[in-house]
Amino acid sequence: MLPQLVRRLGLMLFTVWGAVSLTFVILRLAPGDQATVQLGPEATAADVAALRTELGLDRPMFTQYLDYLGGAMTGDFGESYRFRDSAMTIILDRFPATVVLALTATALALTVGLILGILAGRSPGRLADRVISGITLVMQAIPPFWSGIMLILLMALTLRLLPSAGSGDLEHLVLPAVTLAIPFAALIARITRSSVAEVTAEPYIQTARSKGLSERAVLSRHAIRNSVIPVVTMVSLHIGTLMGGAVIVEQVFAWEGVGSLLVSAVGNRDYAIVQGATVLFAIVVVTMNLLADVLNARLDPRIRAGVTS
Amino acid sequence: MRSRRHTAIAVTALLGLFATTACGAGSADGGGATGGGEIAVAGQFPTESIDPNGALAIDGGTRVASLQLYSPLLETVGPGEFDGKAAESWEINDTATEFTFTLRDGITFSDGSPITGQDVAASFERTVAADSPFSANFVDVGVQATDDTVTFTPAAPDPALLAKLTGVMITPAEATEDSYLDKPVTSGPFTVESFTPGGDLVMVPNDRYWGEKPTLDRVTIRSIPEVAARVTALETGELDIIWGISDDQVTQLNGNTEVQVVSATGSAVTTMWMNASTPALAKAEVRRALWQAVDFDKKIKALYPESGEPADSVIAPTVFGYAPQEPVTYDPDAAKQALVDAGFDFDTTLRFHFSQAQFRQWVKSVVSDLAAIGVKAEALEKEQAVYTEDLLSLNWDINIQQVGTLGLDASYNLGRLYTCAAERTGYCNPELDRMLKLAGTAVDPAERQAAYADATELIWNEAVGMYPMFVKNLFATRASVSGFEPDVEGLPRFDTVSVDE
Amino acid sequence: MTAATGLRVADLTVTYPGPRTSGFRRQSSITAVRGVSLDVAPEETVALVGESGSGKSTIARAIVGLVAPSGGAVEFDGAPLSNRRDRLARRNIAMIFQDPRSALNPRMSAEASIVEAWRAHPEAAPEGVRRDPRRRREAVVDLLAQVGLDPDVAGKRPTALSGGQCQRVSIARALALRPRLLICDEAVSALDVSVQAQVLQLLVRVREARSLSMLFITHDLGVVRQVADRVAVMRRGELVENADAQTLFSAPRHDYTKELLAAAVDLDVSG
Amino acid sequence: MPERARQGSAGTLRVRDLTIALPGPRGMADVVDGVSFDMVEGRTTGLIGESGSGKSLTAMALVGLIPDTGVATGQVLLGEENLLTAGRARIRQIRGAEISVVFQDPSTALNPTMTIGDQVGEILRSRGLSRRQARERAADLLDHVGIPDAAGRVGAYPHEFSGGMRQRAMIALALAGRPRFVLADEPTTALDVTVQARILDLLGRLRDEDNLSMLLVSHDLRVMSHVADDLVVMYAGRVCERGPAKAVLNRPLHPYTDALVRSVPSVRVRSAIADPLPGSPANPFDRPAGCPFHPRCPRAEDRCRTEVPELREIAPGRVSACHFAELAQRTPDTVAEELR
Amino acid sequence: MTAMGLVHDATVPVPVRTGRSRVRRVVGAIPIGIFGLYVVAAVLGPLFVDYSPVGGDLADRLLAPGSVTSDGGTAVFGTDALGRDLFGQVLYGARTSVLIGTLVVLFSGLVGITVGTVAGYRGGTTDLLASRVIDVLLAFPGILLAIVIAGVFDRSLAIVVIALSVTNWIGFARLSRSMAMTLRERDWVKSATVMGVRRGRIIARHILPFIAGPTLALATIEFAGAILAEAALSFLGLGLPSASVSWGQTIASGKEYLASAWWIAAIPGTALAVLVICVGFTGDRLTRHFGRQQ
Question: Counting one residue from D and one from E, how many pairs have CB atoms under 8 Å apart?
Answer without folding.
Answer: 54
